[in-house]
Design goal:
This protein is mainly β and 106 residues long. It is 0% helix and 67% strand. The protein has no helices and nine strands. The strands form two sheets. Strands 1, 3, 4, 5, 6 and 9 form a six-stranded antiparallel sheet that branches.
């Protein structure tokens, strides 16, 4: 998926059917805009769920400026697992998010 946003609200970046027990994401985030130092981040997110609880591990983060741009969470909503990103309030500029997902059926 490919998302562009500029607010500090939690934003859904992807979802997958809960018939998939687990998934792994590579999330690339780009920060830019007028007068903003460009920053690029990559993060790996393995996710597994029990049908009611979701466990997400945020690791493998690299950033060109050595600063993370925000945090990730996941929840079950209906019959889907939804993944969210919330940028840090001090992160000024426009963020673009691209994801690649690999998922495994239950």
């Amino acid at each position: 998926s490919d998302e562009v946003f500029g607010n500090t609200q939690q934003t859904k970046i992807d979802s997958f059917p809960s018939t998939y027990r687990s998934a792994k994401f590579f999330v690339q985030i780009s920060l830019g805009g007028a007068g903003v130092a460009a920053n690029y981040q990559i993060t790996e997110l393995p996710i597994v769920h029990s049908g009611t609880d979701v466990d997400l591990v945020d690791y493998g983060t690299a950033s060109t400026l050595g600063r993370r741009l925000g945090d990730f969470t996941a929840n079950i909503v209906g019959s889907n697992v939804e993944i969210y990103f919330k940028r840090y309030a001090v992160t000024i500029g426009q963020i673009q998010i691209k994801t690649v997902r690999t998922a495994v059926l239950s």
